[in-house]
Amino acid sequence: MLHHIGLYVNDMKTSCEFYEKILLIEKKERFMWNDTELIFLIGKGYQLELMPNSGSHAACSHIAFSVTSVTKKIKELSQKEIFLTEGPYELPNGWRTVFYEGPDGEEIEFIQTRIPH
Predict the structure, then answer these.
(1) How far apart are CA 49 and CA 70, in angstroms?
(2) Dihedral, CA of residue 44, residue 18, residue 39 and residue 63, to nearest 10
(3) For the segment 13-64, what is each residue's pLDDT rounded down to a tens digit?
(4) C-alpha to C-alpha distance for 16 and 73, rounded to whole angstroms
(5) Long-range contacts at 93-100 (CB < 8 A, ≥ 24 apart)
(6) How many CA atoms lie within 13 Å of 43's alpha carbon, on the beta-carbon side?
(7) 82: nearest Cα among 68, 104, 101, 66
(8) End-to-end CA distance of the chain, in Å?
(9) CATH topology of domain 5-53+60-112
(10) What residue segments make up the domains of the chain, in order of their start?
């Protein structure tokens, strides 16, 4: 079972605000470990750990979050002035997906795997 996804970010405040805007965050934990600030954004079924990038870490390729409707997610984020960078796409198996870019160039995917009948 997945516990969390960790992202190295250049600006903790900017990234924290961005992810709080695009995800349904239920709880935020902030603490220090080995003189490094860590922020855990906790949602339903996932945790996103933000860590300061010291420049020695590779960027994450992408992270994907399940949504019930890609169309609704696009509308919700555009109202927050966050606009998609790719898609939406329909995959051969019927899934729908759309991509956004985070503050550090990380790719965020929202994927709809259940097809409404």
Answers:
(1) 24
(2) 60
(3) 999 999 999 998 989 999 888 888 999 999 988 889 998 987 766 666 678 8
(4) 19
(5) 96/70, 97/64, 97/70, 98/70, 98/73, 98/74, 99/62, 100/22
(6) 16
(7) 101
(8) 29
(9) 2,3-Dihydroxybiphenyl 1,2-Dioxygenase; domain 1 (3.10.180)
(10) 5-53+60-112
Q: What is the pLDDT of residues 63-92, one digit of tens each?
A: 889 899 999 999 999 999 999 999 999 988
Query: What is the DSSP annotation of the chain?
Result: ----EEEEES-HHHHHHHHHHHS-EEEEEEEEETTEEEEEEEETTEEEEEEE--S-SPPP-EEEEE-S-HHHHHHHHHHTT---SEEEEE-TTS-EEEEEE-TTS-EEEEEE-SPP-
pLDDT at 11: 92
Residues 6 or more apart in contact with residue 85 via CB below 8 angstroms = 99, 100, 101, 107
Phi, psi dihedral angles at 27 (to 5 degrees): -155, 150
Closest CA to 71 of 50, 51, 88, 90: 88
